[in-house]
Amino acid sequence: MSGRDGGGEVADVWVYSGAAGVAVGTFMLYVLVGACFSYFPRPKGLITREMVSNLSALLMQLLVPCMLLSALGQNLDAATLGQSAGLVVWATVNLLISFVIAYFVLPRCVRVPQHLFVPFVLALTFNNSGSMPIVLLEPLARSPALAADPDAYDRALAYIWVYGLVWQVMLWGFGAPAAEEVLTSPPVLGIAGGSCLGLVRPAGDALFSPAGSLAPVGSVISTLGAAMVGSSNLVLAGSLYHGSVDTLARLRRRGKLPCAARPCQAQAPPPMQRAAASGELAPRSAPSQKEGGGSAAPGHSRSGVFGSGEPAAPSRGSLSLEVPEPAGEEGLSATAMALVLAVRLVIAPAVSFGLYAAAMALQVPLLVPPGGSMASPEAAAAGTDPIIFVVALVQACTPSAQFALVITQQAGLSRAAESLSLLYLVMYPLSLLTMPAWITLALSLVFGKA
Question: Its family (predicted)?
């Protein structure tokens, strides 16, 4: 669909809008199913907190690595690997855009209390780069623009996790002493192993070719990998449900919402449940107090976000989470909360999409298809993979990752965690309104006339 005339362009936009609507609608259905089975059957519900936590561990330790081995082992080649370098650049650019706006611009526009500064910088910088794109890309891969490519979604899954590798590196670059865990985590090992299988074609064929000598092993890997998508979606839905229940309970306890007949109590999830449960690309474990992680007594820090063991003397530019919470300090004002939501859902994506449009106009290699669009003869001749650019743009418009909330809770900032919980409670429903527009624009940019 190249949209050679005005009528064709309008028709294409409607097609792209339909694809975006189906993608977001699919996400809503997953959340609805997860919420229903988190509540029913009574009294505990089927998707309990323990199930979410255990299934999250299974995903990160087994299903995701199997998916990466299968997807990369069957679809990766030298040309595709070279093209994916552009995705690494876009991942870095998207994250840096959000960080610059959150760290330098937002505090100049609205008052952010000191103890909320770093938690909100983390929340605005790091988007949900795993579970939500996994849900969104599945129907997009079946849209008219990509329907002729049966392997589009397999490659999309692999690219999502390549993007997530940059996400992890930048997160731990804030100061957490866990770089070795990033490099040895099962998803990263899956990326490395799948890349080797894809580039060393005889090895990949031995596993994944029907006549390969190790075809039974490859079949098991592929079957386990295929289970990753549905499991990740249910985990995300269960995590959002239980997180919303916790947030509402905290607000009731503080008198901001009326209490029901039963006591207003929130059950705290296991420390890593929210991050892993959201399907985000978190390392195997968050740093604990013994490991130098973020749960020391208030007033002490370790390094970067997590501090260095010295008493904290935080300033506006400090990246320490170990900031004592003032006794009378409330959360963000309604105006500040609205601006934070606008930054994550509108302003940061607008900057990323604007840079993509500029790269199209300049036809920057790797960052956009040859000729600026997949509709160009150059892109067709080069065999460019459009999924790379769809993933890069979809990643720019997703809401915040829940991992920022985990870090804040481990630092003992209860009020900051409450403010973040309220932010997510509002942000995720609002994202269902903003993402269709951004995804429509993304498809128009990638597949429309340059």
Answer: Belongs to the auxin efflux carrier (TC 2.A.69.2) family.
The whole-model pTM stands at 0.79
Q: What is the C-alpha separation between 250 and 420, in angstroms, rounded? A: 12
Contact 280, 130 (CB under 8 A): yes
Question: 121 CB contacts (<8 Å, ≥6 apart)?
Answer: 99, 102, 103, 319
**Does any domain span residue 179?**
yes
Longest dimension (CA), the chain: 69
Q: Which two tokens stand for residue 363?
A: 């036809």
**What are the φ/ψ torsions at residue 84 (nearest 5 degrees)?**
-70, -10
Segments of the chain scoring below 50 in pLDDT: 1-7, 175-178, 261-318
Q: Tell me whether residue 300 is in a domain.
A: no
Amino acid at 405: L
Tell me the C-alpha distance between 414 and 344, whole Å. 22
The closest of 347, 353, 367 to 443, measured between CA atoms, is 353
Residue 389, in any domain of the structure: yes
Q: Please give the tally of structural domains in the chain.
A: 1
Q: Residue 311: in which H helix or E strand, if any?
A: strand 307-311
Evaluate whether residue 297 is within a structural domain: no
Termini Cα distance of the chain: 12
Whether the CB-CB separation of 47 and 269 falls below 8 Å is answered with no
Crossing angle between the packed helical segments 215-253 and 414-447, to the nearest 10 degrees:
130
To which H or E segment does residue 414 belong?
Answer: helix 414-447
Cα 408 to its chain centre, rounded Å, is 18
- Residue 249 is part of which domain span? 6-286+332-447
Alpha carbon 318 to its chain centroid, in Å, reads: 25
Nearest to 302 by CA among 322, 285, 284: 322
CB atoms within 10 A of CB 366: 17
Q: Can you read off the two tokens belonging to residue 438? A: 């951004």
Report residue 184 as tokens: 């040895």
At which residue do the structure tokens 């082992």 appear? Answer: 73
SS3 371: helix
Could you give the angle at the alpha carbon of 55 between the alpha carbons of 54 and 57, nearest 5°? 65
Each residue's pLDDT tens digit, 20-53: 999 999 888 988 998 899 999 988 899 998 898 8
For residue 331, the model assigns a pLDDT of 66
Q: How far apart are CA 243 and CA 270, in angstroms?
A: 12
